[in-house]
Amino acid sequence: MTTDDDSAPFGRALCAMVTPFTGSGALDLDGAQRLADRLVSRGCDGLVLSGTTGESPTTTDAEKAALVTAVREAVGDRAALVAGVGTAATRHTVELALAAEKAGADGLLVVAPYYSRPPQDALEAHFREVADASGLPVMLYDIPGRTGTRIEPDTVVRLAAHPRIVAVKDCAYDLLGAQKVLSRTGLAYYAGCDEQILPLYAIGAAGYVSTVANVVPELFRAVLDAFDAGDTGRAALLQRRAVPLVESMMAAGLPGTVTAKALLGALGLPAGPVRAPLRSADRETTASLLAAYEELAADAGQFQA
Known about the structure:
single chain
């Protein structure tokens, strides 16, 4: 279910959802449904499945499709579902895009092909071929720290002319580049780094795709709601209050997948282990994460409108 708002085609408050596994490492579809329902019930109007946080490099094509189908059953039309389909190969990405469309996704998250580091003209051709392959709208995913390739702002501007390329998830840490795209296109711009949600929203972003939202789905929704209500001081306060948890989860040397699953598990919520080559957080790290969460949770009343 994409929204009717062209400025936020996948909603405003999106969670980059972890993919729950059983204790043995198998796909936990029941857990995925319970987690998705919790996220949507607590403020997320969009879910990104099988992104980096969803461990897409280590889930099979069949598991990715099954995840979309199961989550759709759980949330119905209460939230947009964006399926991560990006791979290092254009042909494989197209195959995943078609499978996601068949499984019931509302949109596609397509990351720059990693490792091969294609030049910008090849990168542009890759995105166009994927966008041409299905009827679903596309969110470009710019995260050069993971892929080794930047989707340059000029390339994004050219791609914006494609009728099905409608959004960007930004993890490039380039505020000038973000403003360049915002000023020259009608693309919906989504903050992909939790510490940049309010700064990007303040200059015209559509919303965010958050890993931290796995644990506190209400938090950044409250930031956006306060800003929309004209209470910019409260929005800034809420964003700052999130800093200890964001730092613990996203800037402590472990992937957000690992920290999110550690916290979810400590809270008794569906998560399970991560798949190799990742390793689950140790007890000391989990305790530190839990302390940061509990400090923030003590102010949970502040998240209410």
